[in-house]
Write a structure and sequence with these properties.
The complex is a heterotrimer of chains A (73), B (483) and C (480). Chain A has 2 helices and 3 strands; from the N terminus they run αβαββ. Helices cover 23% and strands 12% of the residues of chain A. Chain C is α+β, with helices and mostly antiparallel strands and 480 residues long. Chain C folds into 3 domains: 287 residues, no CATH class; 115 residues, no CATH class; 59 residues, Arc Repressor Mutant, subunit A. Chain C has 15 helices and 17 strands. Chain C is elongated, with a radius of gyration of 29 Å. The termini of chain C are far apart. Classes of the chains: A alpha+beta (73), B alpha/beta (483), C alpha+beta (480). Chains in contact: A-B, A-C, B-C.
Chain lengths: 73, 483, 480
């Protein structure tokens, strides 16, 4: 079994320490600082077509489309 | 030339005593000479560097002056650099040439910085020893059998070996401060949101910050001045004015209240503790006072981090699927095969470990017990820091539990590796700025002193570090053979 | 046979009509060549970050206010994680626990006039995925990410609907509303308005809901109705044959008029939602809400109520005329000059001749070949009896195809109504004289022959006799 699989259970045990902590009435923090609010940007088109440049890194492109094995719906 | 500070180099350039091209050639030669033994750089951009240097020289000739104009640097390979490979230390991006500059890169470029190359790093910034890189481990110039720390191990090793006047790094759980400490350089992780994350390949979005590794706080201040500031492309970037860090370096330290964290000093190895206490004597002689404080939830910072960071990274790394860029497996037979093999072959074991851990802690049935719980404990840790900073201005303690360890010593046991971050992780969870500076040696290897401050107190941290560096010379010492 | 009750909930995805995408500055215009409207953020390049479009938030708030919903003062974006090639980040930025809009409702009116309130559980902001195309690629698919990142408002109803007809009425109401508010163009062919239906059945009287199936790929009102009807029949059939309905996603096939189970698309039911750390909570202030509220146009229900009350139109007529903002505005423009006393006449013409012509030529009301002032001109000539209603229809057709005014056509074709009693009487006399047998039959009791005489007189007069006068005079002369 790959080494990363066997170590997973020890990682999970390690983080189980958290369960012993009393967090009643504590709000979770998804961000490191409280009180910040999302900035809103104006509804303006700010981009031009750079398809050629951006597709240079693509493993497989045809007629401007990214090609993948068939997607079955 | 490689022993000069950034300020001195800028003066020389301004006075015409040397050109940016000469300076660049000098560092490129050092890289060619020393990198094979250190493996600190993944990519060397000699041609681009010389072209940028020539452009800087033209600006200088026109009378333009700037603190970083014409001064070379090395970027951690986590920053997207337009037209240059950006590997993030991974096979997944070995063939990836970034089509744009990260904001940090663009700002430094505009200031006339000359990029010498991209520094090696732990794969996707996951590691504390730079042993997980696809390109092989980085070696510590102080002892090439030892790790330089991670994940900004290449940046730290290059800095210590004087392969560039300064390097950039990123810090998610200590990845600037810890390698800075293990290689005897000065590294700063700014407040979360102080420096833009746009173009910095994401590991854990609510913890990542870009920063700098340099020879001194004075140099770090000059670089941070250019890197910092609001970026409209990053929603988590803070719109607050950037203080004049270089100008504030000289402020006196009288009245500075230093907090000594009980949790940091409990069980601290004696030689490490002795170095910290020596450092504190310097501070008290400058008029600072010390008081013991406690952050009772701090010991939980490592398990908290190892839930939150993997959770965020498991999602951030989902975009690497072999479709639009990056590694793709040969002849995928169907979609599932494309994903499985591209990701299975493209990622190393530590990255896979963290993705799996992250997926686990976010999954239905475990979310509350792990992810949600960890985010609640995160608030408790935050609260502890807030209370401490109501009594003190800065917290001082060690950066790492031990000096650099041997390559290969810990890589098979992730938990032991994770505990390397025990002193640094808290600052990331709370978004606080942290700085590590050299404060002595143990067994001939450098050790770091860590300063942590409240949000947006970078100027105070740099000031306190600078005042210490005016009276000590740990930071001026170079590893043998690299002077 | 048990008495079955049908339970339906609809999830509608409305593409918001912003100029740029929800998290990037790329254009949202439909029909561009593949991947020419996909920037680094849309392509999920390493290192990119989302920044929220203010107009998308505004549009969501507009919708929320229009359905009387609660607007969250603080809402959060969450990542919905799953792998699919048209989802470049491997997660969709959506909203989960704290959507921007919740707890609204709207009133629907069915064809038979009954009304019902349908609850709207929530409406939240999220980004659209790209598209996969299959033509011209052997055993492969081509991914176009132009659409990836277009803002969507996902509108989720309570499972309050009890028939396919109710579902269609609700869908039409939402469609009307988003177009009124100018937040979505409602173009179902282009995919800017998409509907999924959750359908289940239960024995009447049972409180617990039956297992539901989700039907996707419904892009017309007609398909929604047929798909639901088919699905209901299928579920009842399954249960009555002793089977169990499976919770699954089904696709509606409009060619075969049936729903079928989706072939195993690796459905990740566990999306591992968590708050997106790259985006901060969105705060919507009371001041902002008040400002948006004051900018709302008159809503369809308000307009319909006003038409019904002020103009004495039937609820049905008022509903039809207010179904689209432009139609209502057209109607009111006609009335402005014609006078509200003739509301019924105007209503009949707008809903009748005008709508038929628009449908026949596949035109939107905004492209009508007869403008409100012109229609008013025509209707005035009916009101002042220059022409009859019947002749007016011919005049309308000519106006439509020639672009001339009513007066111009009436003049050119000499269509003025004849109101000279003497003239009408002489024609009546001539017709009666020419048809003695029919006269005798009529006087003997065959009342139906009245119509015959009317027709003959009209024919002889080129249709231009004033019908009312003709009737009176003919009755008098036939009375005998």
């Amino acid at each position: 079994m790959p080494v990363y699989v066997t170590s997973l259970s020890s990682i999970v045990d390690f983080v189980a320490d958290l369960s012993r902590t009393d967090t009643a009435n504590v709000e979770p923090m998804a961000h490191p600082m409280d009180g910040q609010r999302q900035r809103l940007r104006p509804d303006v088109v700010a981009e031009t077509d750079h398809r050629e440049k951006y597709q240079r890194n693509a493993p497989s492109v045809q007629a401007g489309l990214y090609v993948v094995p068939k997607v079955i719906e | 030339m490689h022993d000069q500070s950034i300020g001195e180099l800028a003066l020389h350039l301004g006075a015409g005593r040397c050109s940016s091209v000469e300076l660049t050639r000098h560092f490129l030669a050092r890289i060619e000479r020393f990198n094979p033994a250190l493996n600190a750089l993944v990519t060397v951009t000699a041609e681009e560097a010389l072209a940028a240097a020539a452009a800087a020289d033209r600006r200088l000739a026109r009378g333009e002056r700037g603190p970083l104009l014409g001064v070379p640097l090395i970027h951690k390979d986590i920053f997207c650099t337009d037209g240059v490979r950006t590997s993030c230390g991974s096979r997944m991006l070995d063939n990836f040439v970034a089509p744009y500059d990260a904001t940090v890169v663009a700002r430094l470029r505009a200031a006339g910085a000359v990029m010498l190359g991209k520094a090696n790093m732990d794969e996707f910034a996951m590691g504390s020893s730079n042993e997980t890189s696809y390109y092989g481990p980085v070696r510590n110039p102080w002892d090439t059998g030892k790790v330089p720390g991670g994940s900004s191990g290449g940046s730290a090793a290059a800095m210590a070996a004087r392969l560039a006047p300064y390097t950039t790094g990123t810090d998610t759980g200590g990845s600037i401060r810890q390698p800075a400490a293990l290689t005897g350089v000065t590294g700063i992780k700014p407040t979360y949101g102080r420096v833009s994350r746009y173009g910095m390949i994401a590991f854990a979005s609510s913890l990542d910050q870009a920063g700098v590794l340099a020879r001194s706080a004075e140099d770090a201040a000059a670089v941070l001045q250019v890197m910092a500031g609001f970026d409209p492309l990053d929603s988590t970037s803070v719109d607050a004015p950037v203080p004049d860090y270089p100008r504030l370096l000289g402020a006196p330290l009288t009245g500075l209240r230093i907090g000594l964290l009980r949790e940091f000093f409990d069980g601290l190895e004696s030689r490490n503790a002795a170095l910290i206490h020596d450092a504190l004597k310097v501070y008290t002689s400058l008029g600072a006072s010390t008081v013991e404080v406690s952050l009772p939830h701090l010991p939980l910072s490592v398990p908290t981090y190892y839930v939150v960071a993997p959770a965020e990274c498991s999602s951030n790394l989902s975009r690497f699927d072999g479709v639009r860029y990056g590694y793709r497996c040969d002849n995928p037979k169907d979609l599932l095969d494309l994903y499985r093999r591209s990701r299975g072959e493209g990622f190393g074991p530590e990255v896979k470990r963290r993705i799996m851990t992250g997926t686990y802690v976010l999954s239905a049935g475990y979310f509350d017990a792990y992810y949600l719980k960890a985010q609640k404990v995160r608030r408790l840790i935050n609260e502890d820091f807030r209370k401490a900073f109501s009594e003190v201005d800065v917290l001082i303690g060690p950066t790492t539990p031990t000096p650099a360890f041997a390559i290969g010593a810990k890589i098979d046991d992730p938990i032991t590796m994770y505990l390397n971050d025990i002193y640094t992780i808290g600052a990331n969870l709370a978004g606080l700025p942290g700085l590590s500076l050299p404060c002595g040696f143990v067994d001939g290897l450098p050790m770091g002193l860590q300063l942590i401050g409240p949000h947006f107190s970078e100027s105070r941290l740099l000031n306190a570090a600078h005042q210490y560096q005016l009276r000590t010379d740990w930071h001026r010492q170079a590893p043998r053979g690299y002077e | 046979m048990a008495d079955w009750e049908v339970v339906i909930g609809l999830e509608i995805h409305a593409q918001l009509a912003t100029r740029s995408k929800i998290f990037s500055g790329s254009a949202t215009a439909y029909g561009a060549p593949p991947n020419t409207q996909a920037n680094l953020v849309d392509l999920a390049y390493p290192g990119v970050l989302p920044v929220l479009n203010a107009e998308a938030v505004r549009m969501a708030v507009k919708f929320g206010l229009a359905i009387g919903a609660h607007i969250a003062p603080r809402s959060v974006f969450a990542r919905k994680n799953y792998f699919y090639p048209d989802l470049p980040k491997g997660y969709q930025i959506s909203q989960y626990e704290l959507p921007v809009v919740s707890r609204g409702s709207l009133r629907i009116v069915l064809e038979d006039g009954t009304q019902k309130i349908v609850g709207v559980t929530r409406a939240h902001l999220e980004e659209d995925a790209g598209k996969s195309l299959h033509e011209g690629l052997a055993n492969a698919s081509g991914i176009d990410l132009n659409r990836a990142g277009t803002p969507l408002l996902e509108i989720v109803s309570e499972p309050d609907m009890r028939s396919a007809k109710e579902a269609v009425a609700y869908m039409k109401k939402i469609h009307t509303l988003v177009r009124y508010l100018e937040i979505c163009d409602g173009n179902m062919q282009e995919g800017s308005f998409r509907c999924d239906a959750n359908v289940s059945v239960r024995p009447r009287g049972q409180e617990k809901f039956g297992t539901r199936a989700e039907i996707k790929n419904l892009n017309s009102f007609r398909f929604v109705e047929k798909a639901i009807q088919h699905e209901v029949a299928r579920q009842i059939d399954v249960i009555e044959s002793g089977g169990k309905v499976v919770q699954e996603t089904r696709l509606y096939d409009s060619d075969k008029d049936e729903t079928r189970s989706m072939r195993s698309k690796e459905e990740a039911n566990d999306y591992r939602y968590f708050p997106d750390p790259d985006l901060l909570p969105v705060e919507v202030s009371e001041g902002f809400i008040a400002e948006v509220r004051s900018s709302l146009p008159e809503l369809p229900d308000e307009k319909a109520a006003r038409f019904a009350h002020d103009l004495a139109l039937s609820a049905y007529d008022a509903g039809v005329l207010s179904a689209s903002r432009e139609l209502g505005e057209y109607f009111e423009a006609v009335l402005a000059e014609l006078g509200t006393a003739h509301a019924k006449l105007a209503a009949n013409w707008v809903m009748g001749e005008l709508s038929s012509a628009l449908n026949r030529d596949n035109l939107d009301i905004t492209r009508s070949k007869v403008l409100p002032a012109d229609l008013k001109g025509l209707l005035s000539r009916i009101v002042d009896a220059t022409i009859s209603g019947k002749i007016a229809k011919d005049v309308f057709e000519a106006m439509w195809s020639e672009g001339k005014s009513a007066d111009q056509i009436i003049e050119a074709k000499g269509l003025k109504q004849i109101t000279d009693s003497g003239a009408i009487e002489s024609v009546i006399d001539a017709v009666i004289a020419a048809n003695p047998r029919q006269l005798a039959d009529y006087r003997a009791g065959k009342d139906k022959l009245f119509g015959f005489f009317v027709g003959q007189v009209m024919k002889a007069m080129g249709g231009k006799a004033n019908p009312a006068q003709l009737n009176d005079l003919l009755k008098a002369k036939l009375g005998g």
